Amino acid sequence: MAKSVLLGILVVAVAILTAESSRDANLTIVNDCNYPIWPMIIPNDGFSPISGNTFRLDSRDAIASFTIPPSAAWSGKVMARVGCAVDSSSSPSRCVSGEELPATVVQLQVHAYGRADMAVYGVSLSGGFNVPATVTPHAFQSGDACPALGCTVDLNPGCPAGRRVTAADLAGGDVVVACRSDTEAGGYFKQRCPKTLTWSGDSVDVEERCVAPGELKVIFCPKTMVTAAADVPDDETELISRTVDVDDT
């Protein structure tokens, strides 16, 4: 599978082409954190991987693109690993957070419910939290709601005692790197992040879907909740300055 890493953002291109719709949809992953992340893209059962998950994404400093066959549906999760060690094969390991729960999980379905033009998406904190994340559809058919979902709030500093996951910082103290999940409705997570799924059986007050989006954009550590835009080009692609081919199988 051909891949490239470009300075700026991480883009995962997922081609969608059936008799119903011939429009491509791109999945773009942006790191707005002030530290590097190692994105982990995990297919759900029955779907093919689209990444070897070995690349590092510096803050607004890299793009990698992945393509799957045009006729294929895809469903999976995106997580942000933080504070990873890198071995001689460039594979991240022993990450401070994001390798397993508790972690923020972005959930995505392309070709959902058997429809070639349907995307379903959301941000789940039901397994815990490690970094803020939002997902927003762009360039969709005018008239569809296509809400932005997720949360811009860093939940780690205020994480209730007993649910904190800590790691030693450079000064020798402990810093909260993740927060274990709520077990009830209306808890710490839901009060601060109402447009996320925070416990089993939770829901948000808008539909978590969009018809024929040209792009699904996942932003880690977003500064603001970006509003979805119908058929508006994304200016952030202008940040691309050079291409470096990598092998990320």
Overall description:
With 249 residues, the chain is mostly beta strands. The protein has a single domain (4-245), classed as Thaumatin. Helices cover 2% and strands 33% of the residues. The chain has a 5-stranded mixed sheet with strand order 2-3-16-11-12, with no helix packed on it. The chain is globular and about 50 Å long. The protein starts with a strand and ends with a strand. The model is unreliable at 1-22 and 231-249 (pLDDT under 50).
Write the layout of secondary structure elements.
Elements (H helix, E strand, L loop, with lengths): L3 E3 L3 E5 L10 E7 L5 E7 L19 E3 L8 E9 L2 E2 L5 E2 L11 E6 L7 E7 L8 E6 L10 E3 L12 E5 L5 E6 L8 H5 L16 E3 L3 E6 L22 E3 L4
Parallel strand pairs: 3-16
Antiparallel strand pairs: 1-5, 1-17, 2-3, 4-6, 6-9, 7-8, 9-10, 10-15, 11-12, 11-16, 13-14
